[in-house]
Structure prediction request, 227 residues.
Amino acid sequence: MRVLLVEDDEPVAESLRRGLLRYGFEVEWVTTGTAALGVGTPYDLVLLDLGLPDTDGLDVCRALRRRGDVPIIVISARSDETDRVVGLEIGADDYVSKPFGVREVIARIRAVLRRARPAVEPQGPQAYGARLTIDRKAARVRLDGAEVALTPKEYDLLAFLTEEPGALMSREQIMEAVWDANWFGPTKTLDVHVAALRRKFAGAVAIETVRGVGFRLVLDPAPADSA
Prediction:
């Protein structure tokens, strides 16, 4: 997922860039409206500051919207209601006022992307490797054809990790997706649930620990794999 970040305040931009990278986004950072309109590589979402040094961010928003329907989230120190209304009326999908937390911005991004690209629900059980099937509509999991009893959070965790088998998911990503976007407590509960899934699906999936980062789910691991 590629984000175009248009922000001339370097500390703000660096904080956002680091946060976005931590959550798995790719970031292209530019500091002016002219540079934003000149970006040639495709991107999936725009984070747009209004107080740019060369032009008003509202004009950039208007120009980007004329080009297509890429989601745009305005980030600005302007908290006046008029600016909010104008920004939304000319095509912004959301408006975040400074100061803000990175978690808030991530939550807004995910909400905007869900609205822009609603997920298509699978119509039946989906196979993950040779032994595991998940019926997401019924929230049921089977191993070698037999249903496996899971707690609600065990199911949510397995469903999340199987969305992208092999992808490295950070602890922050998992806690936000499976528990709560505003979770600030210890993540020990995540380790407990990972251990439970490892026991219940040994041989069918492996959940590898990447120390200091998070976890990666592997389908049909080799017998020697002890992750």
Residues 102-116 form the longest helix (15 residues). The chain has a mean pLDDT of 85. The first strand starts at residue 2 and ends at 6.
